[in-house]
Design a protein that fits this description.
The protein is mainly beta. It has a domain at 15-63. It contains no helices and five strands. The strands form two sheets. A three-stranded antiparallel β-sheet has the order 1-2-3, with no helix packed on it. A two-stranded antiparallel ribbon has the order 4-5. This is PIH1D1/2/3 CS-like domain-containing protein. It comes from Tetrabaena socialis. GO terms for molecular function: dynein intermediate chain binding; protein-folding chaperone binding. Belongs to the PIH1 family.
């Protein structure tokens, strides 16, 4: 069953100023003015995540696959 949980954070920056770093349990987003570090509630596959910038809405969407500990 897929989770529909999401987190919305507003950071005012130009897309080329953003640096996104995702590890198994953390997401870090930084710009010249802001630094955001979030401890994720579940382990994720940081190597296979997707980030997409929507220029019209000026929104960065990050999608991460949760790594399940159990085989079910």
């Amino acid at each position: 069953m897929a989770s529909k949980r999401c987190l919305t954070v507003l950071i005012v920056a130009r897309p080329w100023e953003l640096d996104l770093d995702v590890k198994n349990t953390t997401l870090k987003l930084s710009s010249p003015r802001y630094k955001l570090s979030i401890h994720l509630p579940h382990k994720v596959d940081g190597e296979r995540g997707k980030a997409k910038w929507d220029a019209g809405k000026k929104v960065l969407s990050v999608t991460l696959r949760i790594l399940r500990e159990d085989p079910f």
